[in-house]
Amino acid sequence: MTHAHEMPIETRLRHSGLRPTRQRVALADLLFAKGDRHLTVEELHEEAVTAGVPVSLATVYNTLHQFTEAGLIRVLAVESSKTYFDTNVSDHHHFFVEGENRVLDIPVSNIAIDNLPEPPEGMEIANVDVIIRLRPCRKD
Prior knowledge:
By secondary structure, the chain is α+β, with helices and mostly antiparallel strands. About 30% of the residues lie in helices and about 20% in strands. It has helices at about 10-15, 20-30, 40-50, 55-70; strands spanning about 40, 75-80, 80-85, 90-95, 100-105, 130-135. The strands form two sheets. A three-stranded antiparallel beta sheet has the order 1-3-2. It has a three-stranded mixed beta sheet with strand order 5-4-6, with no helix packed on it.
C-alpha cells in the first residue's frame, strides 16, 4: 500500500480535491521535500523566491490555507502574530522555543489529557493542541 507522503505531489493534490496548478505543485514540492516541518507563510515564500519560483506572498498564504482545508497540512497558532503550518497532520503536540521561534514535535503518546470539559450541545472535540513554551534556563 502506498502512503500519501510517498505519492507524487500531483497525485496527492488531486486526491485532496485540489487541481495541481504549477504554483501549487512548486509550493508543495518545497513544503514536503524536507519531511515533517513547521513553516510560516513568510518562510515558505522566502524558500520559493530563493528556488526561483515566481509567487507572491498572497499566493503562498492562499495556497497554504487551501492545503489546510484539504487536510494536507495543519495550522498551528503559536502566538497571535505568528501562525505555523505543520506538514505532520498526525495527532501530536509541540514545544515552542521562545526567542528562537522554533517549533518542535512532541509525540502524542508522551502527553495524557484528562478531564476535558463537555463540549456545547451539537459540538464535538475535533482535536486538542498542546503547546509547551520553552526558554533557556536562567543562570543565577
